[in-house]
Write a structure and sequence with these properties.
Elements lengths: L2 H13 L2 H12 L4 H14 L5 H15 L29 H21 L22 H28 L4 H32 L6 H19 L20 H7 L8 E6 L11 E6 L2
Antiparallel strand pairs: 1-2
Helix pairs in contact: 1-2, 1-3, 3-4, 4-5, 4-7, 5-6, 6-7, 6-8, 7-8
Organism: Entamoeba invadens
Protein name: AP180 N-terminal homology (ANTH) domain-containing protein
Amino acid sequence: MNFIELHYSIEYYFATTELHEKDCLEYFKRCTKKNEIRTIASKIVKVLKEKDVLRRFKALILLHTLSQLEESTIFSQIESFGNEKMDAEFLVQSTKLVYWEHIYDEILLTEESLRRKYEFLNGSFAINRGEVIPQQFRTPRFCEDFEKDVLYLFGIINDFVMQKIKSGAENSYLQKACELCIKDMVCLYELVLNLDNYKSLLNESILNTERASSCQKQRLFIKTEMKKKNEDKGQLNRIPQITEYKKSVTKFSSFIKKFPLASKGIKYDSSRLGDDETAGIVNILLLN
């Protein structure tokens, strides 16, 4: 893209009203070259050090938006970010944007940490087609630690969204931040479900649905509360059912392409599957 156009768009985004910001964000999503991403990241870091809270909040929204791209590298271009400790007087003033900025900033710092620790995840907290979970994570212990990190991020995002809904705060920028957070919640829930299934396969045990069920309940509760306030935009309509993958030949064969196991034959009783599955005992060879 044109370098001058990019710089103009960045300045315009931080100076314009919300009416034109959507077009700017869509433009930035198409900036995929390293030098373009580096330029945007540099501006984000610079704005986050300014005193204008609205510009700082818009910088966080831009950072969050770009982090959700499938092949996002925005965090790799930012060595550090984060606001200074907020004054105590603002910690209880939920009507102030700076209050929400403080919480939102903590969410993105946690997300950055998670993405740096698990670099194989794409912008949707998933594993890209044709790639697999690294060898060192193919044990129950590592999966357990991985899932705890994912659940922690899910939890602080959930708290942020719920607090916004309960407070009744009306701010278009805060609403946009919540929409981005809800998108993350959907992806994180699916990752938890994948990890639960993976641990079940690694341990050769039944699926423990406690954690996935808890995440699902939180999402359903948020959806209900948003409907009451006419804030539901359909972000939570896609709520996958909790499924034990090894009971479905189709689901299982797709799953192990990204979450492989040690080479061995595993049997599945298809009498527990739907009528459209192959009858009898199905043997599937799992390859590294």
